[in-house]
From TrEMBL, chain B:
Family matches, as InterPro entries: ABC_transporter_permease, MetI-like, MetI-like_sf
Any Gene Ontology CC annotation: plasma membrane
Pfam family, one: BPD_transp_1
Stated name of the protein: Sugar ABC transporter permease
Transmembrane segments: 21-45, 83-104, 116-136, 164-187, 218-238, 272-294
PROSITE patterns, sorted: ABC_TM1
Organism: Thalassospira xianhensis MCCC 1A02616
Keyword Transport included in the entry's annotation: yes
GO biological process, one term: transmembrane transport
Bilayer topology annotation: Multi-pass membrane protein
Domain ABC transmembrane type-1: 79-291
From TrEMBL, chain C:
One GO location term (cellular component): plasma membrane
Entry's family note: Belongs to the binding-protein-dependent transport system permease family.
Highest taxon of the lineage: Bacteria
Native source species: Thalassospira xianhensis MCCC 1A02616
Transmembrane segments: 12-33, 76-98, 105-129, 141-164, 185-210, 244-265
Gene Ontology annotations of biological process type: transmembrane transport
Gene Ontology molecular-function annotations: ATP binding
Protein name per the record: Sugar ABC transporter ATP-binding protein
CDD domains the record matches: TM_PBP2
Keywords for this protein: ATP-binding, Cell membrane, Membrane, Nucleotide-binding, Transmembrane, Transmembrane helix, Transport
Record's bilayer topology term: Multi-pass membrane protein
Pfam families: BPD_transp_1
């Protein structure tokens, strides 16, 4: 078997069920479901959920369509505007307000509440914040995933350094410490980097993901209400730390370089629990740790993604039913292996800590704690426009002699009108 | 003769007119539907505020233009970038094409081989070319900087420093397209009668004088065509930008064609993107008129 | 120094200079080939052009990763359809504009010429909604119709007209005497005479379609409908990071057949440009 599946071509087989009754059954329907993962393990799990849907809907197939993360929102928007909308899809927290505001998401409240045994109240209230209004539900979070630090234990051991999970116990796991570790572990001669940003995209599509957790650990924030807080001295201090890691220390994979944690070329990275699936063939030992503390203490940050049904979809009712199926207790427990759930019953069950075969229970507690204490990444109705304005300003940070506070001030002045 | 007999009621002239219209009707119909119609529409769109996501639009008059011209600093950066890109690409491309053509127009052994080499990127997909160069231009592990380090030069982070990113995109684009211009020049050079050069040589003219007084003037029509093709090609550059820099860093390589795409399809500002498209239209129309005047003045 | 040694030195300079200039043209292809044969992690790990271990499996994985053969076919058939249709429609219109006298022809010519240089970006937004209205989204029709009737088709028409203008009229007049219709004269006499122009225009049109990127990006969603340029830009792993080794293997697969065809036909290609008088 090849390591690669044909992307976007996972069909769940439903034909067998209707073989004998071909003449009588309704025409088979296909739901199109957009995701940003291409991981074989993820797609297989999703395919199984789609398969189990045929128990109640024998003629329905679900097709999972992978769109790369960086192009995701743009592609589905184009598809909607072009009259070819997906029926369902994943959506990231930062897009939620814009999509809700534009009326692009279907209200699935009625279907969910009328589904037997669904138990809508089981979803943690804070997690639902972005996705419901007083009388409507626009999506169900399937992943409320805290940001974590992955570390290459083999490299730590070889350098005889105390590992991050040890330091968590000592209470010495801080961003300054992470910086020092990254610097120690950077080995230019063998191409080993100290720290890699989130999926290596920390200067582009994931620049918020890289900087917001540090800023929060230093007591700052991106924006509050309609006022930009990125120009605060706390935010500047945090961004300066990261800037120093990249330029003063040269320990962090800079823009335009490749250094992949998952192939063993970086000692540390910040990412989420779902990326564990990328480590199945790792040739090194690894471990997990929570985000480091900053001067403001713990600032766990959670990235959230929800399953949504699109308002313009061609099979709205069916899509809502599949959404209900995908987020029922059984399937949420199943997805918990990769995507930390928002269902209290699943989260609180002991089985959650053992749900991921690759991760030791004590490390899984970091995930559980992160969900409990974490706050969601910033989002906004005009996020696409904010992103457009912010991007060139963020770019200006990535040079050796960038003036961090001045650049952040400029950033704030260009996004403030949009907030 | 037979034609006249077959159509007694129509004069020869009318028949020719009908045939003429029939011959041009396929392209004309398509052109009206897929070019003229959309062109009119884009003027209308440019007067609306239109969100691609919510699909709602409202009339705002000239607000998009006012926004672009007075309020939005990015617009001017983008315009300047587009002109810098053209100003960098066109002379470099043309000088190189002419130089290569002069070196390779005569059939010396090896000439065919080198023509093949310089033309190869032209038939290579632009996406492939951009992808390969993105790798070659990486900061430390890229082949370009590793090559430079042999000579003790510490190369810049090509695609991640605004000025160098522009240089990189121009340079790779020149490499991609110079072959076609070279071939056009070679074709033109080969159509210049040999006698001219020989006559000049007999009169004691040296190579440079022959080039300046005979070859260059005779190449003028070709030069004009190549210039037009290259200028327009430079204003519509999209794939290199999309794949190599995404318009960054700091909008340093954000050119008009790419900016239209981003505003229209990525940031949902469809009306604003339409106004940008009108600006691009005006820019190219101006160039077209200048070119027509140049051509007319030559005659 | 006598004349001969001087000649020799010039010749050596000529070769050395061209070789140096050729490096940035040739090296990317070598690097692509080498990267295509390397494993995922050593594309960047070693700067040597010779792979430590040759991974032929990259090429088969390209086909397992996405329907690459299908995408190859898409690009090929679209380019061929666009080329043939353009040659037919544009040469017909070009012939009429060069040879036939009819009211409005000067105006048509002026309108077409002013559109000669309009890039597709100008009309892409309205065309997006037009294709939606026509129900042609997520199909290959926009990729065929827009080049055919946009600036590329106009350019082809214009080039054909220029060529027909330069053809001697006598043969066509003889054809008229023999009782051929106007269409017959165009099809049986003028077209066969314009082979160089047809092949030059054909090559330009084919390459234009083959390189098309913005249109597929905007109009096509399904991976089975992707064209090669889109497919090449789509070799990303789970979270959108490029799979370099596969991307390079796919790039090599896309580039090498074209290179071979070009090397075999390069003399004819250059000649057709020379004889077509593509110079406005």
């Amino acid at each position: 078997m090849s390591d690669f599946v044909i992307k976007r071509l996972i069909y769940s087989a439903a034909i067998s069920a209707s073989l004998g009754f071909a003449a009588n059954t309704a025409i088979a329907e296909e739901l199109r479901f957009t995701v940003w993962t291409g991981s074989e393990a993820h797609l297989q799990m999703l395919g199984e959920i789609a398969d189990s849907f045929t128990a109640t809907h024998p003629d329905v197939t679900v097709r999972f369509d992978t769109i790369p993360f960086g192009d995701y929102v743009q592609k589905i928007t184009l598809q909607m505007a072009g009259g070819n909308p997906p029926d369902l899809g994943w959506l990231l927290e930062n897009s939620a307000p814009a999509f809700v505001e534009a009326g692009a998401l279907a209200d699935v409240a009625e279907t969910l509440k009328s589904t037997d045994g669904y138990d809508y109240a089981d979803f943690s209230q804070p997690a639902m914040g972005l996705w419901e209004t007083s009388d409507a539900t626009y999506g169900i979070p399937f992943s409320t995933s805290p940001f974590l630090i992955y570390f290459n234990k083999s490299l730590y051991d070889a350098a005889d350094l105390e590992t991050p999970d040890q330091r968590v116990k000592d209470g010495t796991w801080t961003w300054e410490q992470l910086r020092a570790d990254a610097k120690d572990l950077r080995d230019a001669s063998s191409g080993i980097w100290g720290f890699e940003t989130f999926d290596g995209q920390g200067y582009g599509s994931r620049v918020w993901h890289t900087l917001v957790p540090i800023i929060r650990a230093y007591g700052g924030s991106a924006w509050e209400g309609d006022s930009c807080k990125l120009d605060s001295s706390l935010a500047a201090q945090a961004v300066q730390l990261f800037h120093d890691m990249v330029y003063a220390d040269g320990s962090t994979v800079p823009p335009g370089e490749q250094g992949d944690f998952f192939s063993g070329n970086a000692a540390l990275t910040m990412t989420q629990i779902s990326r564990v699936s990328k480590l199945s063939e790792a040739t090194f030992e690894w471990g997990l740790a929570p985000l480091p503390f900053g001067p403001a203490g713990d600032a766990s940050t959670v990235g959230q993604a929800a399953v949504v049904a699109f308002a313009q979809g061609k099979h709205k009712e069916l899509a809502a039913e599949f959404l209900a199926h995908m987020t029922n207790k059984e399937n949420v427990a199943k997805m918990a292996a990769f995507f930390p759930p928002a269902r209290k019953s699943v989260l609180e069950a002991n089985s959650f800590l053992t749900s991921n075969a690759a991760v030791a229970p004590e490390q899984m507690t970091f995930v559980a704690q992160g969900i409990e204490n974490g706050s969601v990444l910033p989002s906004h109705q005009r996020f696409p426009q904010i992103e457009a304005e912010a991007r060139p300003n963020f770019d200006a940070l990535w040079s050796k002699d960038a003036d961090v506070p001045a650049t952040l001030k400029k950033l704030c002045s260009s996004i403030s009108p949009l907030l | 003769m037979s034609a006249v007999r077959k159509g007694p009621s129509l004069s020869l002239k009318t028949r020719e007119a009908i045939t003429g219209w029939l011959f041009v009707s396929p392209i004309l119909t398509g052109f009206l539907i897929f070019f003229v119609g959309p062109l009119i529409a884009v003027f209308y769109y440019s007067t609306t505020e239109w969100n691609l996501l919510s699909q709602q639009s409202r009339f705002v008059g000239m607000a998009n233009y006012v926004d672009a011209l007075t309020r939005n600093e990015t617009f001017w950066d983008v315009l300047v970038n587009s002109l810098v890109f053209a100003a960098g690409l066109v002379p470099l491309n043309m000088a190189m094409a002419l130089g290569l053509a002069l070196a390779l127009s005569k059939s010396r052994p090896g000439a065919v081989f080198f023509r093949t080499v310089f033309f190869a990127p032209v038939i290579t997909s632009a996406v492939a070319w951009a992808i390969i160069w993105t790798f070659l231009l990486q900061h430390e592990s890229g082949a370009v900087n590793q090559g430079l380090s042999i000579f003790g030069i510490d190369g810049p982070n090509w695609l991640h420093e605004p000025d160098w990113a522009m240089v990189s995109v121009i340079f790779t684009r020149v490499l991609k397209t110079v072959g076609l211009n070279m071939i056009l020049y070679i074709a033109a050079l080969q159509s210049i009668p040999r006698d001219y050069e020989e006559a000049a040589r007999l009169e004691g003219a040296n190579g440079w004088e022959i080039f300046r007084r005979i070859t260059w003037p005779l190449l003028a029509p070709t030069t004009l065509v190549i210039m037009v093709i290259t200028v327009v090609g430079s204003l519509k550059v999209f794939d290199h930008i999309y794949l190599m820099t995404g318009g960054g860093p700091q909008n340093g390589t954000m050119v008009l064609a790419f900016y239209i795409y981003e505003q229209g399809f990525k940031f949902f500002n469809t009306g604003y993107a339409a106004a940008l498209a009108v600006v691009l239209f005006a820019l190219i129309l101006m160039l077209t008129i200048v070119q027509m005047l140049l051509k007319a003045s030559r005659k | 120094m006598n004349y001969r040694t001087q000649q020799k030195i010039t010749r050596i300079c000529w070769i050395v200079g061209l070789c140096a200039l050729a490096i940035p043209f040739v090296f990317p292809f070598l690097w692509m080939l080498s990267g295509a044969l390397k494993g995922q992690t050593d594309v960047f790990a070693s700067s040597s052009l010779v792979p430590a271990k040759i991974h032929w499996s990259n090429f088969s994985e390209v086909f397992a990763y996405q329907p690459f053969a299908r995408q190859y076919f898409n690009s090929l058939y679209i380019a061929i359809v666009v080329t043939i249709a353009t040659l037919f429609i544009s040469s017909m219109a070009g012939y009429a504009l060069a040879r036939l006298r009819f009211g409005g022809s000067a105006f048509i010519l002026l309108v077409l010429v002013s559109a000669l240089m309009m890039p597709e970006e100008v009309t892409i937004i309205p065309n997006f909604f037009l294709m939606k209205e026509l129900g042609l989204m997520n199909s290959h029709m926009p990729l065929i119709l827009l080049p055919l009737f946009g600036s590329q088709g106009v350019m082809a028409t214009f080039l054909m007209r220029q060529y027909f203008l330069a053809l001697p009229k006598e043969l066509e007049e003889a054809g008229r005497m023999d009782g051929l219709s106007r269409f017959g004269v165009y099809f049986k006499i003028a077209l066969p005479l314009s082979k160089p122009a047809l092949s030059a225009v054909g090559i330009i049109t084919f390459l234009f379609s083959w390189n098309l990127f913005l249109e597929p990006l905007v109009f096509v969603n399904d991976i089975e409908l992707f064209t090669l340029p889109l497919a090449l830009a789509n070799f990303t792993d789970t979270y959108g990071l490029p799979l370099w080794h596969l991307q390079l293997a796919a790039t090599a697969l896309a580039v090498i057949p074209m290179l071979i065809v070009y090397v075999l036909a390069q003399r004819q290609i250059v000649e057709s440009f020379a004889m077509s008088g593509v110079k406005g």
